[in-house]
Amino acid sequence: MRLVIIGAVAAGTSAAAKARRNDEDAQIVIYEKDSFISYSGCGMPYYIGGEVDSVDELTPRDPKFFKDKYNVDIFTLHEVISIDTENKTIEIKNLTTGELITDTFDKLIIATGARAVIPPIKGVDNEYTFTLRNINDMNKIKAYIDVKDPKSAVIIGTGFIGLEVCENLKGLGIEVTMIERLPQVTPGLDSDMAVYVKDHLEKNGITVLTGTSAIEINSNSVVLSDGNSINTDMVIISTGVRPNAELAIQAGIEIGVSGAIKVDERMGTNIEDIYACGDCAEQYHVITGKPVYRPLGSTANKTGRIAGDSVTGGRLSFRGVLGTGIFQVFGMAVAQTGLSEREALELGYNVQVCHNIKPNKPEYMGGREMIIKGIADKDTGRLLGVQIVGAEGVDKRIDVFVTAITYKALVDDLFHLDLAYAPPFSTTKDPVMYTGMILDNAINHGRPLIRAQELDNLIESGNNYVLIDARATNQYDKDHIQTADNIPHAKLREAVNELDKDTIAITYCNKGVTGNAAQNILLNKGFKEVYNLSGGHKQYSKK
Predict the structure, then answer these.
(1) Tens of pLDDT along 141-160?
(2) Which residues belong to the active site?
(3) CATH value at residue 376
Protein backbone atom coordinates (compact mmCIF):
# COMPACT_ATOMS: atom_id res chain seq x y z
CA MET A 1 0.00 0.00 0.00
CA ARG A 2 1.36 3.39 -1.03
CA LEU A 3 0.19 6.16 1.28
CA VAL A 4 0.79 9.76 0.19
CA ILE A 5 0.26 12.61 2.65
CA ILE A 6 0.07 16.26 1.66
CA GLY A 7 1.39 18.40 4.50
CA ALA A 8 4.01 17.72 7.16
CA VAL A 9 3.12 19.81 10.18
CA ALA A 10 1.01 18.49 13.10
CA ALA A 11 -1.68 16.45 11.36
CA GLY A 12 0.35 15.06 8.48
CA THR A 13 3.23 13.79 10.57
CA SER A 14 0.84 12.37 13.20
CA ALA A 15 -0.96 10.49 10.43
CA ALA A 16 2.30 9.11 9.10
CA ALA A 17 3.50 7.98 12.52
CA LYS A 18 0.24 6.17 13.31
CA ALA A 19 0.08 4.56 9.86
CA ARG A 20 3.60 3.22 10.29
CA ARG A 21 2.80 1.81 13.74
CA ASN A 22 -0.09 -0.10 12.19
CA ASP A 23 1.61 -1.20 8.97
CA GLU A 24 5.34 -1.86 8.74
CA ASP A 25 5.21 -2.65 5.02
CA ALA A 26 3.36 0.42 3.71
CA GLN A 27 5.21 2.94 1.55
CA ILE A 28 4.64 6.32 3.21
CA VAL A 29 5.55 9.58 1.50
CA ILE A 30 4.84 13.16 2.61
CA TYR A 31 5.06 16.25 0.41
CA GLU A 32 5.43 19.62 2.14
CA LYS A 33 5.69 22.96 0.35
CA ASP A 34 7.41 24.67 3.30
CA SER A 35 10.98 24.12 4.46
CA PHE A 36 9.98 23.43 8.09
CA ILE A 37 8.04 20.39 9.30
CA SER A 38 6.41 19.16 12.49
CA TYR A 39 6.99 22.42 14.35
CA SER A 40 5.41 23.83 17.49
CA GLY A 41 3.39 26.71 16.10
CA CYS A 42 1.91 27.57 19.50
CA GLY A 43 5.37 28.40 20.80
CA MET A 44 6.12 31.02 18.15
CA PRO A 45 5.01 34.12 20.13
CA TYR A 46 7.37 33.08 22.93
CA TYR A 47 10.35 32.82 20.60
CA ILE A 48 9.61 36.33 19.36
CA GLY A 49 9.54 37.53 22.97
CA GLY A 50 12.73 35.74 23.93
CA GLU A 51 11.19 33.18 26.30
CA VAL A 52 12.22 30.40 23.88
CA ASP A 53 15.94 30.74 23.25
CA SER A 54 16.36 28.92 19.96
CA VAL A 55 14.23 28.21 16.92
CA ASP A 56 15.58 24.65 17.12
CA GLU A 57 13.42 24.12 20.21
CA LEU A 58 10.32 24.69 18.07
CA THR A 59 11.57 22.62 15.12
CA PRO A 60 13.10 19.54 16.77
CA ARG A 61 12.34 17.11 13.92
CA ASP A 62 13.51 17.10 10.30
CA PRO A 63 12.96 14.68 7.39
CA LYS A 64 15.93 12.58 8.52
CA PHE A 65 14.27 12.06 11.91
CA PHE A 66 11.14 10.64 10.28
CA LYS A 67 13.13 8.50 7.88
CA ASP A 68 15.27 7.02 10.65
CA LYS A 69 12.47 6.49 13.18
CA TYR A 70 9.43 5.74 11.01
CA ASN A 71 10.84 4.95 7.56
CA VAL A 72 8.77 7.80 6.16
CA ASP A 73 10.04 9.86 3.23
CA ILE A 74 9.38 13.58 3.58
CA PHE A 75 10.07 15.93 0.67
CA THR A 76 10.12 19.58 1.70
CA LEU A 77 9.77 22.48 -0.75
CA HIS A 78 7.55 20.20 -2.83
CA GLU A 79 4.08 21.61 -3.48
CA VAL A 80 1.24 19.35 -4.61
CA ILE A 81 -0.59 21.35 -7.27
CA SER A 82 -3.29 18.91 -8.38
CA ILE A 83 -5.01 15.65 -7.50
CA ASP A 84 -6.40 13.22 -10.09
CA THR A 85 -8.92 11.24 -8.05
CA GLU A 86 -9.89 8.90 -10.89
CA ASN A 87 -6.36 7.76 -11.74
CA LYS A 88 -5.08 8.16 -8.18
CA THR A 89 -2.19 10.43 -9.10
CA ILE A 90 -0.92 13.78 -7.86
CA GLU A 91 1.21 16.39 -9.58
CA ILE A 92 3.97 17.97 -7.52
CA LYS A 93 6.14 21.00 -8.17
CA ASN A 94 9.69 20.99 -6.84
CA LEU A 95 9.90 24.58 -5.59
CA THR A 96 13.70 24.53 -5.72
CA THR A 97 14.12 23.41 -9.33
CA GLY A 98 10.68 24.12 -10.81
CA GLU A 99 10.46 20.48 -11.98
CA LEU A 100 6.99 18.89 -12.21
CA ILE A 101 6.64 15.36 -10.83
CA THR A 102 3.79 12.85 -10.92
CA ASP A 103 3.27 10.36 -8.11
CA THR A 104 0.68 7.65 -7.51
CA PHE A 105 -1.20 6.65 -4.37
CA ASP A 106 -3.39 3.92 -3.03
CA LYS A 107 -4.51 6.07 -0.13
CA LEU A 108 -4.20 9.85 0.14
CA ILE A 109 -4.36 12.06 3.23
CA ILE A 110 -4.80 15.80 2.77
CA ALA A 111 -3.29 17.77 5.66
CA THR A 112 -2.80 21.15 4.02
CA GLY A 113 -3.57 23.17 7.15
CA ALA A 114 -4.78 26.75 7.14
CA ARG A 115 -3.48 30.21 6.33
CA ALA A 116 -3.85 33.58 7.98
CA VAL A 117 -6.79 35.73 6.97
CA ILE A 118 -5.64 39.11 5.64
CA PRO A 119 -8.42 41.71 5.64
CA PRO A 120 -8.81 44.04 2.64
CA ILE A 121 -6.72 46.88 4.08
CA LYS A 122 -5.12 49.42 1.75
CA GLY A 123 -1.32 49.25 1.91
CA VAL A 124 -1.25 45.92 3.75
CA ASP A 125 1.47 44.47 1.50
CA ASN A 126 4.67 45.99 2.90
CA GLU A 127 7.83 45.04 4.79
CA TYR A 128 6.59 46.11 8.23
CA THR A 129 3.22 44.29 8.28
CA PHE A 130 3.22 40.63 9.31
CA THR A 131 1.09 37.61 9.99
CA LEU A 132 2.16 34.78 12.31
CA ARG A 133 1.17 31.40 10.97
CA ASN A 134 4.41 29.48 10.39
CA ILE A 135 8.11 29.45 11.22
CA ASN A 136 8.98 31.64 8.25
CA ASP A 137 6.53 34.28 9.49
CA MET A 138 8.07 34.05 12.94
CA ASN A 139 11.60 34.45 11.62
CA LYS A 140 10.59 37.54 9.60
CA ILE A 141 9.08 39.19 12.66
CA LYS A 142 12.09 38.34 14.82
CA ALA A 143 14.54 39.62 12.21
CA TYR A 144 12.58 42.85 11.78
CA ILE A 145 12.60 43.48 15.52
CA ASP A 146 16.32 42.69 15.82
CA VAL A 147 17.29 44.96 12.91
CA LYS A 148 14.77 47.81 13.08
CA ASP A 149 14.34 48.02 16.86
CA PRO A 150 10.68 49.15 16.66
CA LYS A 151 9.31 51.20 19.55
CA SER A 152 5.62 50.69 18.80
CA ALA A 153 3.36 48.08 17.25
CA VAL A 154 -0.27 47.75 16.22
CA ILE A 155 -1.94 44.35 16.45
CA ILE A 156 -5.12 43.96 14.40
CA GLY A 157 -7.35 41.35 16.02
CA THR A 158 -7.66 40.20 19.64
CA GLY A 159 -7.79 36.41 19.38
CA PHE A 160 -5.43 33.97 21.10
CA ILE A 161 -2.39 34.57 18.91
CA GLY A 162 -2.79 38.34 18.86
CA LEU A 163 -2.90 38.50 22.65
CA GLU A 164 0.07 36.17 23.10
CA VAL A 165 2.10 38.26 20.63
CA CYS A 166 0.96 41.41 22.45
CA GLU A 167 2.40 40.19 25.75
CA ASN A 168 5.69 39.20 24.16
CA LEU A 169 6.14 42.47 22.26
CA LYS A 170 5.39 44.42 25.44
CA GLY A 171 8.03 42.35 27.20
CA LEU A 172 10.56 43.60 24.64
CA GLY A 173 9.73 47.19 25.53
CA ILE A 174 7.49 47.79 22.50
CA GLU A 175 4.37 49.88 23.09
CA VAL A 176 1.35 47.99 21.76
CA THR A 177 -2.05 49.11 20.51
CA MET A 178 -4.68 46.45 19.82
CA ILE A 179 -7.51 47.02 17.35
CA GLU A 180 -10.72 44.97 17.35
CA ARG A 181 -13.66 45.63 14.99
CA LEU A 182 -16.09 44.01 17.44
CA PRO A 183 -17.25 45.91 20.56
CA GLN A 184 -15.19 43.55 22.78
CA VAL A 185 -11.85 41.78 22.84
CA THR A 186 -11.46 37.97 22.63
CA PRO A 187 -14.40 37.34 20.27
CA GLY A 188 -14.91 33.76 21.48
CA LEU A 189 -15.84 34.91 24.98
CA ASP A 190 -19.12 36.43 26.04
CA SER A 191 -18.92 40.18 26.58
CA ASP A 192 -19.38 39.92 30.36
CA MET A 193 -16.16 37.86 30.56
CA ALA A 194 -14.23 39.68 27.83
CA VAL A 195 -14.40 42.86 29.91
CA TYR A 196 -12.03 41.28 32.45
CA VAL A 197 -9.48 40.63 29.71
CA LYS A 198 -9.74 44.19 28.37
CA ASP A 199 -9.29 45.67 31.84
CA HIS A 200 -6.28 43.44 32.43
CA LEU A 201 -4.67 44.48 29.15
CA GLU A 202 -5.12 48.15 29.95
CA LYS A 203 -3.72 47.72 33.45
CA ASN A 204 -0.61 46.27 31.81
CA GLY A 205 -0.11 49.28 29.58
CA ILE A 206 -1.82 48.08 26.40
CA THR A 207 -3.99 50.51 24.43
CA VAL A 208 -7.17 48.67 23.38
CA LEU A 209 -9.47 50.08 20.71
CA THR A 210 -12.73 48.20 20.10
CA GLY A 211 -15.54 48.86 17.66
CA THR A 212 -13.17 50.08 14.95
CA SER A 213 -11.09 48.55 12.17
CA ALA A 214 -8.01 49.33 10.13
CA ILE A 215 -8.68 50.65 6.63
CA GLU A 216 -5.18 51.70 5.58
CA ILE A 217 -1.59 51.02 6.59
CA ASN A 218 0.98 53.72 5.85
CA SER A 219 4.75 53.77 6.37
CA ASN A 220 4.40 54.91 9.98
CA SER A 221 0.69 54.75 10.87
CA VAL A 222 -2.55 52.81 10.71
CA VAL A 223 -5.70 54.65 9.66
CA LEU A 224 -8.91 53.53 11.37
CA SER A 225 -12.49 53.40 10.18
CA ASP A 226 -13.49 55.99 12.81
CA GLY A 227 -11.16 58.53 11.24
CA ASN A 228 -8.38 58.29 13.80
CA SER A 229 -4.85 57.11 13.03
CA ILE A 230 -2.20 55.43 15.18
CA ASN A 231 1.52 55.97 14.75
CA THR A 232 3.39 52.68 14.64
CA ASP A 233 6.65 51.06 13.58
CA MET A 234 5.17 47.64 12.77
CA VAL A 235 1.84 45.89 12.32
CA ILE A 236 0.77 42.33 13.18
CA ILE A 237 -2.42 41.01 11.58
CA SER A 238 -4.15 38.41 13.74
CA THR A 239 -7.67 38.15 12.38
CA GLY A 240 -8.08 34.39 12.22
CA VAL A 241 -7.30 31.64 9.74
CA ARG A 242 -8.92 30.05 6.70
CA PRO A 243 -8.60 26.37 5.70
CA ASN A 244 -6.36 25.56 2.74
CA ALA A 245 -9.07 23.68 0.85
CA GLU A 246 -8.44 24.84 -2.72
CA LEU A 247 -6.57 21.68 -3.71
CA ALA A 248 -9.50 19.57 -2.50
CA ILE A 249 -12.05 21.78 -4.24
CA GLN A 250 -10.22 21.44 -7.56
CA ALA A 251 -10.28 17.67 -7.13
CA GLY A 252 -14.03 17.59 -6.57
CA ILE A 253 -13.81 16.77 -2.88
CA GLU A 254 -16.82 17.94 -0.91
CA ILE A 255 -16.47 21.05 1.26
CA GLY A 256 -18.47 21.52 4.44
CA VAL A 257 -20.60 24.47 5.52
CA SER A 258 -17.61 25.99 7.36
CA GLY A 259 -15.50 26.14 4.21
CA ALA A 260 -13.23 23.32 5.38
CA ILE A 261 -13.08 19.81 3.89
CA LYS A 262 -16.07 17.72 4.90
CA VAL A 263 -15.05 14.44 6.56
CA ASP A 264 -16.75 11.58 8.37
CA GLU A 265 -15.83 10.28 11.82
CA ARG A 266 -12.90 8.34 10.32
CA MET A 267 -11.60 11.40 8.44
CA GLY A 268 -12.82 10.04 5.10
CA THR A 269 -13.95 12.44 2.39
CA ASN A 270 -16.69 11.82 -0.17
CA ILE A 271 -14.10 10.20 -2.45
CA GLU A 272 -12.97 6.69 -1.61
CA ASP A 273 -9.39 6.31 -0.34
CA ILE A 274 -8.97 10.07 0.20
CA TYR A 275 -8.91 11.43 3.74
CA ALA A 276 -8.39 14.86 5.33
CA CYS A 277 -7.25 15.94 8.77
CA GLY A 278 -5.93 18.91 10.72
CA ASP A 279 -6.72 22.56 10.10
CA CYS A 280 -8.01 21.96 6.56
CA ALA A 281 -10.77 19.64 7.79
CA GLU A 282 -14.15 20.39 9.34
CA GLN A 283 -15.07 19.06 12.78
CA TYR A 284 -18.39 18.64 14.56
CA HIS A 285 -19.49 19.91 17.96
CA VAL A 286 -19.93 17.46 20.83
CA ILE A 287 -23.04 19.20 22.18
CA THR A 288 -24.93 20.08 19.01
CA GLY A 289 -23.58 17.48 16.60
CA LYS A 290 -23.37 20.26 14.00
CA PRO A 291 -20.34 21.03 11.82
CA VAL A 292 -17.86 23.59 13.19
CA TYR A 293 -14.39 24.83 12.34
CA ARG A 294 -12.11 25.06 15.38
CA PRO A 295 -8.49 24.80 14.19
CA LEU A 296 -6.19 23.90 17.10
CA GLY A 297 -2.89 22.04 17.34
CA SER A 298 -4.38 19.49 19.74
CA THR A 299 -7.21 18.70 17.33
CA ALA A 300 -4.80 18.52 14.38
CA ASN A 301 -2.71 15.89 16.15
CA LYS A 302 -5.80 13.93 17.13
CA THR A 303 -7.40 13.93 13.69
CA GLY A 304 -4.05 13.11 12.09
CA ARG A 305 -3.73 10.04 14.27
CA ILE A 306 -7.28 8.96 13.37
CA ALA A 307 -6.60 9.42 9.65
CA GLY A 308 -3.41 7.38 9.87
CA ASP A 309 -5.28 4.66 11.71
CA SER A 310 -8.15 4.65 9.20
CA VAL A 311 -5.99 4.19 6.11
CA THR A 312 -4.29 1.19 7.70
CA GLY A 313 -7.43 -0.66 8.78
CA GLY A 314 -7.77 0.62 12.34
CA ARG A 315 -10.99 1.41 14.19
CA LEU A 316 -10.36 4.86 15.67
CA SER A 317 -13.09 7.42 15.05
CA PHE A 318 -13.44 11.10 15.81
CA ARG A 319 -15.76 12.09 18.66
CA GLY A 320 -16.05 15.82 18.06
CA VAL A 321 -14.80 18.97 19.76
CA LEU A 322 -16.07 21.38 22.38
CA GLY A 323 -14.04 24.31 21.08
CA THR A 324 -11.88 24.23 24.19
CA GLY A 325 -9.16 26.85 24.30
CA ILE A 326 -6.83 28.48 26.81
CA PHE A 327 -4.19 31.19 26.66
CA GLN A 328 -2.23 33.37 29.03
CA VAL A 329 -1.65 37.11 28.83
CA PHE A 330 0.27 39.11 31.45
CA GLY A 331 -0.26 36.40 34.05
CA MET A 332 -4.00 36.04 33.43
CA ALA A 333 -5.22 32.67 32.14
CA VAL A 334 -8.30 32.78 29.91
CA ALA A 335 -10.14 29.56 29.08
CA GLN A 336 -13.39 28.45 27.52
CA THR A 337 -15.16 25.27 26.51
CA GLY A 338 -18.54 24.27 25.12
CA LEU A 339 -21.15 26.79 24.05
CA SER A 340 -20.96 30.46 24.88
CA GLU A 341 -24.12 32.08 26.16
CA ARG A 342 -24.48 33.81 22.80
CA GLU A 343 -24.21 30.52 20.91
CA ALA A 344 -26.60 28.73 23.27
CA LEU A 345 -29.26 31.42 22.83
CA GLU A 346 -28.85 31.37 19.04
CA LEU A 347 -29.38 27.61 19.12
CA GLY A 348 -32.64 28.03 21.03
CA TYR A 349 -31.59 26.80 24.47
CA ASN A 350 -33.44 28.07 27.55
CA VAL A 351 -30.27 29.39 29.15
CA GLN A 352 -29.31 29.69 32.80
CA VAL A 353 -26.09 31.58 33.52
CA CYS A 354 -24.10 32.05 36.71
CA HIS A 355 -20.96 33.97 37.66
CA ASN A 356 -18.94 32.22 40.34
CA ILE A 357 -16.09 34.25 41.86
CA LYS A 358 -13.83 32.11 44.04
CA PRO A 359 -10.12 31.68 44.85
CA ASN A 360 -8.36 28.67 43.34
CA LYS A 361 -7.20 27.67 46.84
CA PRO A 362 -7.52 29.15 50.36
CA GLU A 363 -6.33 32.73 50.63
CA TYR A 364 -4.07 31.74 53.53
CA MET A 365 -2.23 29.54 51.01
CA GLY A 366 -1.95 32.33 48.47
CA GLY A 367 -5.17 31.63 46.63
CA ARG A 368 -6.07 34.04 43.84
CA GLU A 369 -9.49 34.84 42.46
CA MET A 370 -11.05 33.15 39.46
CA ILE A 371 -14.22 34.26 37.69
CA ILE A 372 -16.14 31.28 36.34
CA LYS A 373 -19.12 31.73 34.05
CA GLY A 374 -21.30 28.67 33.76
CA ILE A 375 -23.89 28.23 31.02
CA ALA A 376 -26.58 25.55 31.40
CA ASP A 377 -29.88 24.45 29.86
CA LYS A 378 -32.76 25.23 32.22
CA ASP A 379 -35.00 22.60 30.64
CA THR A 380 -32.66 19.63 31.11
CA GLY A 381 -30.12 20.86 33.67
CA ARG A 382 -27.28 19.96 31.33
CA LEU A 383 -24.07 21.95 31.54
CA LEU A 384 -23.46 23.58 28.13
CA GLY A 385 -20.36 25.71 28.49
CA VAL A 386 -17.89 27.39 30.81
CA GLN A 387 -15.60 30.42 30.59
CA ILE A 388 -12.91 31.21 33.18
CA VAL A 389 -10.46 34.03 33.80
CA GLY A 390 -7.97 34.01 36.64
CA ALA A 391 -4.36 33.87 37.69
CA GLU A 392 -3.93 30.28 38.84
CA GLY A 393 -5.78 26.99 38.62
CA VAL A 394 -7.77 27.90 35.51
CA ASP A 395 -6.34 25.04 33.44
CA LYS A 396 -7.25 22.45 36.06
CA ARG A 397 -10.86 23.64 36.33
CA ILE A 398 -11.51 24.02 32.63
CA ASP A 399 -10.35 20.45 32.02
CA VAL A 400 -12.74 19.16 34.70
CA PHE A 401 -15.57 21.07 33.02
CA VAL A 402 -14.53 19.70 29.60
CA THR A 403 -14.79 16.17 30.94
CA ALA A 404 -18.14 16.85 32.57
CA ILE A 405 -19.66 18.39 29.44
CA THR A 406 -18.26 15.62 27.23
CA TYR A 407 -20.07 13.02 29.32
CA LYS A 408 -23.29 15.06 29.42
CA ALA A 409 -23.13 16.01 33.09
CA LEU A 410 -26.04 17.80 34.69
CA VAL A 411 -25.33 20.81 36.88
CA ASP A 412 -26.19 18.89 40.06
CA ASP A 413 -23.57 16.26 39.16
CA LEU A 414 -20.75 18.76 39.70
CA PHE A 415 -21.24 18.98 43.47
CA HIS A 416 -20.86 15.20 43.75
CA LEU A 417 -17.51 14.98 41.96
CA ASP A 418 -14.88 13.54 44.30
CA LEU A 419 -12.27 16.18 43.47
CA ALA A 420 -8.83 16.29 45.04
CA TYR A 421 -8.55 18.58 48.05
CA ALA A 422 -5.69 19.87 50.14
CA PRO A 423 -5.05 23.54 50.99
CA PRO A 424 -2.10 23.93 48.58
CA PHE A 425 -4.34 22.87 45.69
CA SER A 426 -7.98 23.76 46.28
CA THR A 427 -10.70 24.90 48.63
CA THR A 428 -12.79 22.31 50.47
CA LYS A 429 -15.63 22.87 48.04
CA ASP A 430 -13.80 23.37 44.79
CA PRO A 431 -14.88 26.22 42.48
CA VAL A 432 -16.10 23.52 40.08
CA MET A 433 -18.46 22.24 42.75
CA TYR A 434 -19.61 25.75 43.64
CA THR A 435 -20.46 26.44 40.01
CA GLY A 436 -22.65 23.36 39.97
CA MET A 437 -24.29 24.35 43.26
CA ILE A 438 -25.16 27.84 42.02
CA LEU A 439 -26.64 26.57 38.77
CA ASP A 440 -28.48 23.73 40.53
CA ASN A 441 -30.00 26.16 43.04
CA ALA A 442 -31.15 28.43 40.24
CA ILE A 443 -32.59 25.69 38.03
CA ASN A 444 -33.90 23.11 40.49
CA HIS A 445 -34.35 24.73 43.90
CA GLY A 446 -36.09 28.04 43.35
CA ARG A 447 -33.05 30.26 43.90
CA PRO A 448 -33.14 32.33 40.71
CA LEU A 449 -30.36 34.65 39.61
CA ILE A 450 -30.64 38.04 37.96
CA ARG A 451 -28.06 39.45 35.55
CA ALA A 452 -26.62 42.98 35.66
CA GLN A 453 -28.49 44.09 32.55
CA GLU A 454 -31.72 42.51 33.76
CA LEU A 455 -31.39 44.43 37.03
CA ASP A 456 -30.81 47.68 35.16
CA ASN A 457 -33.91 46.98 33.07
CA LEU A 458 -35.94 46.45 36.24
CA ILE A 459 -34.61 49.66 37.78
CA GLU A 460 -35.56 51.60 34.66
CA SER A 461 -38.96 49.93 34.25
CA GLY A 462 -40.78 51.83 36.97
CA ASN A 463 -42.06 48.59 38.53
CA ASN A 464 -41.98 48.09 42.28
CA TYR A 465 -39.02 46.23 43.73
CA VAL A 466 -36.68 46.24 46.69
CA LEU A 467 -32.93 45.99 46.16
CA ILE A 468 -31.04 44.82 49.23
CA ASP A 469 -27.30 45.30 49.61
CA ALA A 470 -26.47 42.61 52.18
CA ARG A 471 -22.88 43.72 52.71
CA ALA A 472 -21.41 45.49 55.71
CA THR A 473 -22.20 49.19 55.89
CA ASN A 474 -18.63 50.31 55.19
CA GLN A 475 -18.68 48.34 51.91
CA TYR A 476 -22.03 49.84 50.97
CA ASP A 477 -20.77 53.35 51.73
CA LYS A 478 -17.73 52.82 49.51
CA ASP A 479 -19.81 51.89 46.45
CA HIS A 480 -23.25 50.46 45.83
CA ILE A 481 -25.87 50.00 43.14
CA GLN A 482 -28.27 52.85 42.51
CA THR A 483 -31.53 52.51 44.52
CA ALA A 484 -30.09 49.79 46.81
CA ASP A 485 -30.93 49.76 50.52
CA ASN A 486 -28.21 48.57 52.87
CA ILE A 487 -29.50 45.80 55.11
CA PRO A 488 -26.46 43.78 56.23
CA HIS A 489 -26.95 40.03 56.28
CA ALA A 490 -26.68 39.90 60.08
CA LYS A 491 -29.57 42.37 60.46
CA LEU A 492 -31.85 41.09 57.70
CA ARG A 493 -33.93 38.78 59.89
CA GLU A 494 -34.86 41.74 62.10
CA ALA A 495 -35.66 44.02 59.18
CA VAL A 496 -37.66 41.52 57.13
CA ASN A 497 -41.00 42.34 58.76
CA GLU A 498 -40.75 45.91 57.46
CA LEU A 499 -40.59 44.72 53.83
CA ASP A 500 -43.48 43.90 51.48
CA LYS A 501 -43.37 40.17 50.80
CA ASP A 502 -45.33 40.58 47.58
CA THR A 503 -42.79 42.96 46.02
CA ILE A 504 -39.97 41.64 43.83
CA ALA A 505 -36.79 41.48 45.94
CA ILE A 506 -33.20 41.40 44.73
CA THR A 507 -30.27 40.67 47.01
CA TYR A 508 -26.58 41.13 46.41
CA CYS A 509 -23.21 41.17 48.11
CA ASN A 510 -19.63 41.42 46.82
CA LYS A 511 -19.51 38.17 44.83
CA GLY A 512 -22.77 36.30 45.38
CA VAL A 513 -22.44 34.05 48.43
CA THR A 514 -23.88 36.38 51.08
CA GLY A 515 -26.45 37.53 48.55
CA ASN A 516 -27.59 33.92 48.26
CA ALA A 517 -27.80 33.64 52.06
CA ALA A 518 -29.95 36.77 52.14
CA GLN A 519 -32.09 35.35 49.33
CA ASN A 520 -32.67 32.20 51.40
CA ILE A 521 -33.81 34.24 54.40
CA LEU A 522 -36.38 36.13 52.35
CA LEU A 523 -37.70 33.01 50.64
CA ASN A 524 -37.96 31.19 53.95
CA LYS A 525 -39.84 34.17 55.38
CA GLY A 526 -42.49 33.89 52.68
CA PHE A 527 -41.34 36.33 50.01
CA LYS A 528 -42.84 35.37 46.69
CA GLU A 529 -40.15 36.40 44.17
CA VAL A 530 -36.52 36.84 45.21
CA TYR A 531 -33.47 37.04 42.97
CA ASN A 532 -29.78 37.01 43.80
CA LEU A 533 -27.49 39.15 41.63
CA SER A 534 -25.19 36.82 39.66
CA GLY A 535 -21.58 37.48 40.60
CA GLY A 536 -22.61 40.18 43.05
CA HIS A 537 -21.43 43.77 42.99
CA LYS A 538 -18.10 42.78 41.45
CA GLN A 539 -19.73 41.39 38.30
CA TYR A 540 -22.27 44.22 38.19
CA SER A 541 -19.51 46.82 38.23
CA LYS A 542 -17.95 45.20 35.12
CA LYS A 543 -21.03 45.65 32.90
Answers:
(1) 999 999 999 999 999 999 99
(2) 42
(3) 3.50.50.60
